[in-house]
Amino acid sequence: MSASTSSFADDHKSSLSAFQSGEERFVWGLDKHTGDLWYLEDDTATESRAFVSERIVCPVPGCAAKLTTAHRTKKRDGLQHFARGGGHSRESIFHSQGCALIQDWLRRNYPRSKAQREEYTNEKGERRADVLLTGPDGDRIAFEVQYSSLTPEAWQRRHDSYQRQGIIDVWLFGHTSNQLKLTADGTVQANPTHEAVVQSGQALMFLSPDLSVVGVAVGVGHPFDADADRYLDQRVPVFNELVSARLEIHSLTDLRPNTRHGLGGEWLHGLYARTAALGTHNTTALAQAARTRERRRQEREAKQRTWEARRSPQQQRIRALFGGVERWSRSEALAEIRAYFGDYLKGRIDYIVNPTSPPELLVQWQCVIYFELIAGQSSPFGARDAFRAIERCGIGMSTDAFKQVVRYLYQLEDGGFLRQLPGYGRYSTFAPTQSGAWW
Ligand SMILES: [Zn+2]
Fold first, then answer.
1. Distance 75 CA to ligand 1 centre (A)
2. Is the same domain home to 142 and 253?
């Protein structure tokens, strides 16, 4: 049995295909005299035949048919029904052989514990375990060999029932396509029941009775970096991330029952420990990053409030000055507006392009729109509101004034100082942006 983990892709691929194609090996029967498991050693078919037909029956629940042996030169010797196949599905043979394998493994390695098949776990018969291991101290671990389909709800009910009874349940899913599906690149395609098992804190495991190995789904986790506020590329093998998880194959002899996760052993223990450590690290780091984000948000808001407190009085002063303008080019309003923007005008208001105008002469009607409806404001408005604001200030404009106003508002939207609101009217509605209102 070659079952150690391989780090080479080719080895992994061939061990995966061996895992999936594990043949239907019928080697465990039941001794009808003792009710115990009986194992057919290889190359003993002929000498065991008389004994088998007299005492050994089929272990598939509800069958108990008499068996005989088959000697094979290329494959291993095996048990078989007298009537061909016994009418069992492959899955029920695998299930019965898997249970027998687990029971035998537990009995051999833990002689002080009791390993029983399909025993009722309480008097009410609430839950029957495939194999129930009872330790010398009375602690119990139920092994479930699951070849048939199982809904997440049905799994949860069984899991909860075990928990209520203080039993740790270990789920070993079948290696056939009913449960184990692999993509071409060897990725495990987990179903919702598998997800539920992993969410409960247990690794997703598959059993191949033929090879006496367990395949464990190992996914990739990433550490979160609080300072960078993102997950790092570094890869940590974890059991609780099934997206792109791969199967790592381990001999049953590498695993050990324990009362923590049901199954442990050095390698599996390492996987659980790394997963837990990454989980703890990420919980702390994510909380820290959230606190940092919140602190920065508060700092930004405080800064904005300070800024607004400085800008508001300037805006009010400018609005008040619009009333007393006689010559715009020499007005106090224009001087204040130029001081207000400094280097931050950035296309908010156009200059008058006219050879006779002094340089840096801002368009008066645009200044009015900007300070009446945008600077320090938050209410939505349309072209009509803008036009009325100009009229209120008594500014004379050319006949295409309304068109110019509309064009100006779209220009401000392009510059990021206004945003258009969804609406149904003929003319668009705008609202000041942060940059429009306060800079
Ligand atoms: Zn049978």
1. 21
2. yes
